[in-house]
Design brief:
heterotrimer, A: alpha/beta, FAD/NAD(P)-binding domain, 5 domains, 5-stranded parallel sheet, 34 strands, C: about 290 residues, Glutathione S-transferase Yfyf (Class Pi), Chain A, domain 2, Rossmann fold, 2 domains, 4-stranded parallel sheet, 3-stranded parallel sheet, 14 helices, about 10% strand, binds flavin-adenine dinucleotide, binds iron/sulfur cluster
Amino acid sequence: MNKIGVFVCHCGLNIASKVDVVEVAEYASKLPGVVISKDYKYMCSDPGANLIKDSIKEFDLDGIVIASCSPRMHEHTFRGVAKDGGLNPFTVEITNIREQCSWAHEDPAEATQKAKALVRSAVSKAALLEPLEASRTPVTPEALVVGGGIAGIQAALNIADSGFKVHLVEKEPTVGGRMAQLDKTFPTLDCSSCILTPKMMEVYHHPNVDLLTYAEVESIEGSIGNYKVKVRKKARYVDIDKCTGCNECASACRLAGRVVDEFNMGMGKRSACYIPFPQAVPLKSTIDPNSCLMLRFGRCGDGPLCVKACEPGAIDFSQKDETLELNVGAVVIATGYDLLEANRMFEYGYGRSPDVITTMQLERLISSSGPTHGEVVLPSSGKHPTSVTFILCVGSRDETQCSWCCRIGCMSALKHVYLLREKLGEEVEINICYTDIRSFGKGYEEFYRNIRSKNTNFFRGRPSEVRVKKEGFLIDIFDTTTDKLFEIRSDMVVLVPALVPRSDSQELARTFKLSRSSDGFLLEAHPKLRPMDTFVNGTFIAGCAQGPKDISDTVSQACGAASRAVGILSKEELENEPLIAWVDPEVCVGCGVCVEVCAYSARNINDVTGIAEVDEALCAGCGACVSSCPSNACTHKNYTKRQLVRMIDEVV
Amino acid sequence: MGITDLTSMAEVETEARRELNERLLRLREEASYYCYQCAKCTAGCEAHKLLELEPHRIVALLKRGLVQEMVNSDIIWTCLSCFKCKERCPQKVAPVNILFALKNLAVASGKEVPGDYTAMLTSAMGMGLIQDVQTVTTRGGETRTREGLCLPPISVPTDPAKFQMTVMTVAMEKV
Amino acid sequence: MRLGLFPGCLMPTEQYGYEISLRKVLPMLGVEIVDVMDLSCCGEPLKSINQMLTLTLSTRSLAVFKKEGLDALVPCPMCHLALSEANRIVKEEEDMARRLNEKLSAEGLDYDGSVALYHTIDLVHDHIGLEKVKDMVKVDLGSPDMATHYGCHIIRPTELGRPVDAENPQKMERILEAIGARSNDYAEKLDCCGGPVLPVHPDTAVTKTGQKLQAVQEQGFDGMVLACPWCHKMYDSKQKKAGETVGAKLEVPVVYLTQLMGLAFGIPPGELGLDLNQSPVERLLQKDKEGA
Ligand SMILES: Cc1cc2nc3c(=O)[nH]c(=O)nc-3n(C[C@H](O)[C@H](O)[C@H](O)COP(=O)(O)OP(=O)(O)OC[C@H]3O[C@@H](n4cnc5c(N)ncnc54)[C@H](O)[C@@H]3O)c2cc1C
Ligand code: SF4
Ligand code: SF4
């Protein structure tokens, strides 16, 4: 006969205000098999834990029931307590009398009655619980980082510095991400490339970093500790070992100055063979197959000029994409963000006049490596603007576009005021149309105060539209600080567009089996307590892939994700979750239905026996096979049919 | 307990606010409480420059529960129903529809209906259209009638008595 | 294509030019216009008085169409808005639909939101198609540069499913191209004609009319083209008054889209009701002579 202990938690007043916990404990003490039943204010506290441990010893318990909050909160805690008390951790059954009783019901009597029923049911199951032992699998001590922006670079460096090998996969020809496009950074006005380039060089030279640029993850299988990854290295049509980065090919290219330059946000033109920017890492040319004449039509005039120009003979049109297979123990996703297409807010004139630009385009105009070498000029005429008007929240905090705040727009516009004053002097008129200035970070409010002194016209309101006139723009704005309508005449309009998930974020989420929040960014396991974890064990997220944020937050999160990954890599072995599926070899007929339904590739049919097997490292215990097995050969450990039927019998 | 507007000593009318919001919800989710006073509506309002309508203030007054103040004001009759405010509001508020509701409230509470509305209403309730066929003049100053232009007879309710019964009962009703 | 006509109030009682040209031009493009009896005002002009009245009037007329088994050609943007809103409410707001149908039962009518609505612009652009329009062109209009004016109610609110884009309407422009005219965008394109406040603030209403016409004139357009009887009333019938109000001599030829299409199709101006336009439309006719 089993000896079961029941422990009823008050959860302060969370449970006790509705459920009569004393009565429930009293009731439980009379149930068959129960030798001790106690209630306590906080069962998860130290005294609570001691109460359980002492009872295990005193009454020589072989199963315990805890009536408390959701097992999602404290299952782990109570299994640990049981273990410390000398009991197999899997002989603990938790029943939830908080979310399901005290929080769900108004009437205390009903809540108490339901709590009793749940406890009765749990006790019946506890008597049938099997002690389980966790199996172990070795960990592959290497990591995969996807995305080579500042988040990915930082995460890769931290992991590499901890002594583990990292494969950093970046889809563009260079690492750097959005930060490489910025000129200076708020609030300190550090030069972006001055602080970024050293890190880019470091990932390039770090002995532990395997840098895979112009590459994408094709598929990933396995689970925490042991992932198998297929990476496709796109053909660069340039032999990286021979290319010296002299960029002669770009100057020679027949399409020089004719291909839209995405790095410069469409404002400049490049060649079909190109190095995105002077500090690119690796500093190697790439031939863009979407524009190159050779690659599109098989011929380029009387012969490709790049080939002639390349002294080391690095150009190789016969290159093919390659697929690499990697084995890693942990994954960090740092794929960053996109910007809202500004013409989605057509009323603001983007696309109707070249002089309506976005803040990212302004970054490129300000940058000395940009299309105008740092001269801020009107794209239409090449002249200096005399009045620049910023419109904030373009598509942000907007139920018709993006509900969320972009978290960097206000600060980036304030930064631009500073930089424009620096570049264009006191003459230029600067107007800011804002809804609320959000300057929440360290040093941000001080920065805002400083900008207020820079002869800036702040209008509190949103324009309804930007009217494109023959000369410049007309903007009506109702300023709620003066309660007046103003007409602004400007020759340059800068829109601050919303930050949005990468256009391929849905596919990315599917490949890595990650969830996305309603805004489309990757979803963290818990917004406060597990901000870099995902619901896939061993896969972490960092930077703007998880949601808009500035560089400091991005770097902090990247360090966090790296340390979570290192936590796994530094273990030689991982304990597998024992609550998984099990196949009865006597019953299984090897039909293979389970292999099809398993989303975690944990099932296969043994070649020799012809019977289904469970890979204990991969099985996530989801139960899909159990419910679909036509022969009833599958069971879920400690959720057996017998156990569940007994529980149901007790309550219905 | 309560909130008083010290400029007019008006009390905040929570009940009127609730009714108005519910009316708006019956027609479509256009909840005014989400308005964050960006004044995009007012910046583009077709009635603002000439008639001083400030749709963002209409929404603010509704949020504050000062319904009577608006019902009593002539300003609600200045809206051109161009729908720019509804079209462009980032919070999917529709000041234009709040204004329709306020005007309906004013009429229902017995306020005089301004301008030519009465004539239009009488005509619509009587013959079905807001005006009867007109004689027009050409650019050269000659007169023309609908018949004279060989256009078919106009389409109006075939059983005017029944039609009037229906619309009369409705004219008393709220949304 | 067979469509019942929902004439509304303004077109059949004074804006005859629209009705005449519509009845002339659309049949040439394969649209059979059926006169439907027993209709009334759409109710939109009375929405300020009582929105329930508006909804009842719209739903009633739609119910008549349903009974006749016809979809509706609605040449007036304001009616098109009212009927679209009635359609949406009957389809989506159960309680309102029930209340409205209770009202209709007195006249033996009922409605379920099933009647499809066509305005002149989308009928020509989306359903007839520009190719068919091009095939009908017989006369070179001389490529006049026309300012387009859509009318607020046919472009907004998007949420109600308007047939033309709210911020960047281009369908009239494409039709103009097809019949040998041009149109350049202008900053005031989406501005309101002022018509809706005519009953309460007549002076302001025509001031708005005048301001937009002034802008169109200053930018050197050859004329203005529209497809709304209310806007036409403002820009054409009241052009002189509008000019006086804003202190400008306004001479902008204002025509209905269907009138201009008719000219391009070779119909004599007299058969398009062009003599009823009060603005100096003869300038456009001269233009087409120059071009020819
Ligand atoms: C106009 C503007 C100005 C700004 N100014 C500042 C400032 O002054 N100060 C500040 O703190 N912040 C600023 N920011 C914010 C800053 O840009 C971000 O915080 C930072 O770039 C986020 O870095 P990240 O690595 O998360 O993303 P990203 O920079 O977007 O990097 C993501 C990387 O992942 C790669 N990638 C994407 N998808 C894949 C894939 N499927 N496979 C492989 N690789 C992939 C991308 O190519 C890219 O290299 C500004 C933002 C804008 C828009
Ligand atoms: S109603 Fe909309 S546009 Fe107007 S102030 Fe409120 S949020 Fe802004
Ligand atoms: S619908 Fe009325 S309130 Fe809204 S913008 Fe137009 S005129 Fe102003």
